[in-house]
Amino acid sequence: MLIVFGSINMDYGVRVEKFPQAGQTLLSPSYDIGAGGKGANQSLACARMGVKTALVGMVGDDAMGTKILNNLRRNEVMTSGVGVSDDVPTGMAFVLTNHVGENQIVVCSGANALTSAAQVPDEILKDGNVVLMQMEVPLAENLAVMERARAHGAKVVLNLAPAYQISQKALEHVDYLIVNESEAQAIAALVGIGASQDYMVLARVLAAKSGHACIITLGAKGAIAFEADGKGWRVPALEIKEVVDTTGAGDCFCGTFAAAIHAKFALGTALRKASVAAGLSCTKKGAQESFPYLADIEAALEDFPQAIPC
């Protein structure tokens, strides 16, 4: 089983020609509403890879929470581990997307702030299972789940997003760390690595220093991954004719990667699958609704380059 411990939000998406400056008001003709939150998004990406997936998190006792959970269930994500708060509403995110598909996001935690490690029973943290986590629920609860997962034998995949202060000791409980370019710089500073624009160097040093695999996503430049022993791989981004929306690409990458690791694929193969899935997600609007199914990923992989050792 793959357990996703993370946030659940309702996303409000607004398309603008350019992002507003401080004090500026922009008009947009319409907006979209869709299920989101890094935890919910990544759990759906896992499920679309055909992996048995359970989401653990919190929603409010409101229409937004009900709609999100119903959508996840339709996509075969198990939601019995999701709690419902009578007092705090479901989290929300406001997503601005400009004319080239870039986005700016503000997340309101809501019920996500009540997510507790106690919602995760020890019996599902067993050897052979994978726990996928992000940084949109309380850090102390994340750390508690990491420690218990390590103690009981489950693998931990941590998407350090948004970038957040985390100790070197906490990283020792992680088996796979996934960051983007800015997050890589932030975590490098936290663990005492000098700033560098050479992300291959950063990934290699982060992996060696922390003792776990480090994956850095590079947007249109693809992704790189290194294991603690210095063995690394690089893949390009999927070539697509038109970028529609990059909002869900990072979550799609993480969910697909974790599902591939759960299925016992090697690091380079997991990197390929995740990169292809993330690219496919950029061809449609929104987050969860843009995530490809396993058949789509496998079809695109036929013409996608093999991971290059580095």
Explain what you see.
The strands form two sheets. The chain has a ten-stranded mixed beta sheet with strand order 5-4-1-8-9-10-11-12-13-14, sandwiched between helices. A four-stranded mixed beta sheet has the order 3-2-6-7. The protein is globular. Helix 1 (38-48) packs across helix 7, helix 5 crosses helix 6 and helix 7 (249-262) runs antiparallel to helix 8. It has nine helices and 14 strands. The chain has one domain (2-17, 31-309): UDP-N-acetylmuramoyl-L-alanine:D-glutamate ligase (3-Layer(aba) Sandwich). A hairpin with a 5-residue loop joins strand 12 (223-226) and strand 13 (232-235). By secondary structure, it is an alpha/beta fold.
Give me some keywords for this one.
alpha/beta; UDP-N-acetylmuramoyl-L-alanine:D-glutamate ligase; 10-stranded mixed sheet; 32% helix
